[in-house]
Amino acid sequence: MRKLPPLGALRTFEAAARRASFKHAADELHVTPTAVSHQIRLLEESLGVKLFERQTRKVRLTPAGHQLFPAVRDGLDGMERAVLAVQRSAQANVATLTSTVAFMARRLAPRAGQFRTAYPDWTLRLDASDQVVDLDHDADAAIRYGSGSYPGLVVEPLFCDRFAPVCSPGLKLASVQDLKHATLVHFEWGAGARDDERAPVWHQWLAHAGVEVTDPQAGLSFTDEIHAVQATIAGQGVGLLSLTLVAEELASGVLVQPFGLTLESFRYDLVYSERAAERPATRLLRDWVKAVFAG
Predict the structure, then answer these.
(1) Distance separating alpha carbons of residues 24 and 56, to the nearest angstrom
(2) pLDDT in tens, 239-278
(3) Which of 35, 46, 139, 293 is the most buried (most CB within 10 A)?
(4) Statement to judge: residues 68 and 183 lie in one domain
(5) Number of domains in the chain
């Protein structure tokens, strides 16, 4: 029989030692700092040695703690790798790709059948989320929309997005001056992008076009980009929209781009974890996404 302390106490010790803080360890483990302190105290009592020197805002390993930490860390890392390997084998031939809700709905979902045609032995799992997804555990790869800076991840640029006024051809806009009397459709950028100059809004485009509108913020405003697209398709107004998201409607004539002026916005990138780079599902998604979207 192995004579080891409880796994929970060892896991708590590893987190506290790695973070040099009971509070940060508690945040990581989703428990209270008091619970972390209690687990560490029980472990110290079990071993009969002191593992941490308690300081005001942080903790420091004792010589005994330094001796124990590498073994516990490496043991937990090995257990994690084994668990992930078992999970992946149980989900063999499933490739998970995550992206924003808007890009998923407008560009990825309509192409899902192409993936199955190219890789009939694989199941494509599409995860739509505007939240950052853990690419070590929850997805094999992602198409992210932003600045292109994703520390710790492999980044392969796909293309830059551009925004321009688009509308139903039934609105019959003849010149930019017609925008003075048109209903403007707005998309409200989230807090993370609102103050970024790469997040185009109507007053920016109108200023570049030299058009003065009494109130450039008036019209129809949506917190969901897909709803702004749908309202524009329905002829409810002129939307300053991502040309990426309305590419199909522009190609078919459902929407028109009456003016040539566009504003460059954020970038679409294929990203994945370095640890997942050689995973079969990641390699397959990389090949497919690059073939479909790189340009």
Answers:
(1) 14
(2) 999 999 999 999 999 999 999 999 999 999 999 999 888 8
(3) 139
(4) no
(5) 2
